[in-house]
Amino acid sequence: MTKVSLVLGTGGARGYAHIGVIEELEARGYQVTCIAGSSMGAMIGGLYAAGGMEAYRAWVETLRWIDVVRLLDLNFKNSLFSGDKVFARLRELIGDPAIETLPIAYTAVAADLTSNKEVWFQRGSLLQAMRASIAIPGIVSPVIRGERVLVDGGVLNPLPIVATVAAHADLIIAVDVNASRDSVAMHLDPEDLEHQQNRSPARMGRFAVLLNSMEVMQGALTRYKIAGYSPDLVIRVPKEVGGFHEFHRAKALIDVGRRMARRQLDLFEELAAVRPDPEAGIGVQDVETVEADSADQ
Known about the structure:
The protein is an alpha/beta fold and 297 residues long. It is built from 8 helices and 9 strands.
């Protein structure tokens, strides 16, 4: 059985596509032994490592637009939302296991605005680690730990490949859900872009401009990270398949993820790609590894 280190990137609601990718990997007999993720990638990866991905999928596929709105607990102190309702539901699904007890090695990546460094969570509360990683600046409240101000890992590293290089795996597979349409043109079918986003300036309010700015920044950072250390395979999902905020479209986005993974894995397996030098392009001087506090604190 081929062992895989899996890297799951940022992308808001498009992160649902990670579920489809994981399901396709499992269907082909790959064994995921290590996961690193930022933002939504950290959440999906943590749920999978804790054995709760199927229950999570069953829940989010029932969410309508109005249900998503009801989960948005407004908090105007330092962001729009606190995220407490979502994480209360996650606690019901998986509890709050310690990361070091998970059967799959796991890293959640956040960004510390005080030190301007990545923070890797590899021990301690899983929920707290995921919560720190998804704290989109200005939208979801940051996690404050002493002098640390922890926000979305995508601010510094939207595709944390380096966090998986020490794992004993046969392949490193990264999933980029902020890819451009052109980068996956050969893998696209019309059904994949059935709900293609209209990003015309005339339809962009303040919230849309903020999210679009985040996507542009994270897309550029992702390309930089892939150039610095190329995984064996990058499964790309174009950002046109859905909006960052479309959390009511779980089933469609999961299905797109599985279709994109199927086509790109078919080609990868045919080409029998060679794994790159594991020492190339690694730089961890701006990374701190910390233990997550209890999510109750």
